[in-house]
Amino acid sequence: MRRLTRVLPLAPAVVLLLLFLAGPIAYCVYIAFTDLQLTGQAHASFVGFGNFRHAFHDAEFRNAVWLTLVFTVLSSLVGQNTLGLALAALMKRASKPVRTLTGGVVITAWVLPEVVAGFLLYAFFRREGTLNALLDWLHLPRQNWLFTLPVLAVSFANVWRGTAFSMLVYSAALDEIPSEITEAAEVDGAGGWRRMWHITLPMIRRSIGTNLMLNTLQTLSVFGLIWVMTRGGPGNRSQTLPLFMYEQAFQNSMIGYGTAVALLLLVVGSLFSVVYLRLLRTEV
Amino acid sequence: MRPTAALSALLTAALAATALTGCGSGSGSSPNTLKVSYKQSTDNSVKVMDTYLAGVKKEFEKKYPGKKVEFVPIKAPDSEYYTKVQQMLRSPRTAPDLVYEDTFLINSDITSGYLKPLDPYLAKWPDWNQFIGTAKAAARGQDGKTYGVPDGTDTRGLWFDRRVFAKAGLPADWQPKTWADVLAAARTIKQKVPGVTPLNVYTGKPAGERSTMQGFEMLLYGTGQGTSDPLYDSATKKWITAGQGFKDALTFVETVYKEKLGPDVSDALDPNFATTVNGELLPQGKIGIDLDGSWLPQAWLAGSGHDWPDWSKQLGLAYMPTQNGQAPGKVSMSGGWTWAVPAKAGNPDLAFDFIKAMQSEANAKKWYIANSGISVRKDVAKDPSYATAQPGIKFFTDLVATTHYRPAYPAYPKVSTAVQEAMEGVTTGDASVEKAASAYDSTLKDVTGGQVIQK
């Protein structure tokens, strides 16, 4: 009886989760094994692993996986994470006005809705855009990255937008490092880089892991930003997995195949998570 | 640590999955409210359809007291509009009573069982006899039943800028006889009028069906003998693989972009390029020749945002010639939209009454003129006030006699995407004509379930 009264308050939450979270996911998994189409088909039928086999033979799918990895490593691991840490470290030493100003600017990018950010960066990168106006003014050669190197352009966009998050996480983590330790190292003659490598990084290891995990998962599912900037084009040169999935499911009307791709995206995300969780577990 | 890890992984998976699943909401329908879904222009200043429908609504609500018309406009580019509508049609809670369907997709939606056959209603509607035969067939399913009432059609041709032509020393009454003539004029413009795009041919996936129909098919249907459909063989019910005509059409596209006769490739692959062409580049005299549809002037009418009342003084019209001038000498493609009643509509009878109100002779005429549409009603086509309402109407209405219709079978949308991919390959230079054609063949086999034939 006691047990029951303990469990009872949880019941509404559990029911809601089952209904709105587990339900759709189970339905998704089911659809991934059918050839369901949005149009042009009277009845859907069960096709087993057909969609997954199709994906692995599909050159466009492999292209999308590759671009997703490039996009994630460039913008999340290298860009947001490193830049966020650098900003946090620099801001710790900066004067208050500088800190407030930089923090404000960086966080503005984070606060902007994804689609708005996408449009801003589209306007910045496009051929008649701000970047080229600046380059002209400096008498430097123009660029058209949205066309020539779209993955780089959208990666930059994602760094611009997402760095604030890493910065906030690392700012909090750096504040937690006791100043005695850093001072002791300083007295022992450790320079800035050595303090960073031997003191700071090991001490904020857990924050790094958490931040990497959240960043990566968020970056893996970025859709709006890329859609607004390039629609995955030109050709499919910036078509990451979420865009590929959208194209298959909603433009080519192959909901079954699109859902199968969504499940594969989930697998990619889980692989990253497993790696990070392993990193987190190792003790110093 | 272990259970936490498992829990985090599970949470991770769950979070990612929620991001990937969507949820829509809908409301039930009341017997006195008629819900009408249509495609709203993505150009905010173009309100042609909204204005027209508001007028019909007023008339309708007066004629049927107690009934209300509620519009459910969908503001999206074509391909996203189709997707949205298909999702709405799947559930009785979201299905409108009346929906605007492109003939491009209607067969596909009929196969899915999304639409209701209209034959019982059409039999009792005398005006239906005024519709021309090809238009009646546009919304006929493979089961022989009719699922939509067309609200006009369209044809296609070459628009050329007389201001640019004068500077290039080309005639003001230009009419090319072959593809070579078109390219020759474009080359002259490139040489003599810098800063102007000599020839615009839509291409690539971002422009969607626009690339296939205005671009590729206007070329493809002018190759060969022109006696049978070059995409679909109706005798064997199979899709035709890339033959010589297909490759010649791709070569034309390749030439346009390789010789820089067309727009900058990055512009051509911008999904919003068509809006720029129609609203800015053509009025500003920045395009020499534009291979495009009959509806362009709807963006230039008074009150439509880009007022350009005397466009016909500056723009000329020419037929798109066949490849080598072979009979019939000109090419046009036709499509158009229809009004259809969803299978899950709550008020199908009322919905058909609204179709009748929209497609009365007077309202149909009003719509054709406002929309720069081509009449599919015999009585309106004969009406002198229609033929003279706008310059160009006669030119495009005359094309109806020789125009081609797409093989809009259920697989067509995917075949169309395959065509766009082939075009995009030769446009960017990523693929040669041969390579693009063979990629088309293998995609074709894939999307039609092997129903292909070599001709």
TrEMBL record, chain A:
UniProt key word Membrane: yes
PROSITE patterns: ABC_TM1
Similarity section: Belongs to the binding-protein-dependent transport system permease family.
One Pfam match: BPD_transp_1
Compartments, record wording: Cell membrane
Transmembrane segments: 64-89, 101-125, 145-170, 212-234, 254-277
Membrane topology summary: Multi-pass membrane protein
PANTHER family with a match to the protein in the record: BLR7065 PROTEIN, SPERMIDINE_PUTRESCINE TRANSPORT SYSTEM PERMEASE PROTEIN
Residues in ABC transmembrane type-1 domain copies: 66-276
Coiled-coil region(s): none
Main localization (coarse): membrane
Gene Ontology biological process terms from the UniProt entry: transmembrane transport
Name by which UniProt lists this protein: Amino acid ABC transporter permease
GO cellular component assignments: plasma membrane
Keywords: Cell membrane, Membrane, Transmembrane, Transmembrane helix, Transport
UniProtKB/TrEMBL annotation, chain B:
Keywords, alphabetical: Signal
Organism per entry: Streptomyces yokosukanensis
First and last residue of the signal peptide: 1-19
InterPro entries registered for this protein in UniProt: Bact_solute-bd_prot1, SBP
Protein name as catalogued: Sugar ABC transporter substrate-binding protein
PROSITE patterns noted in UniProt: PROKAR_LIPOPROTEIN (PS51257)
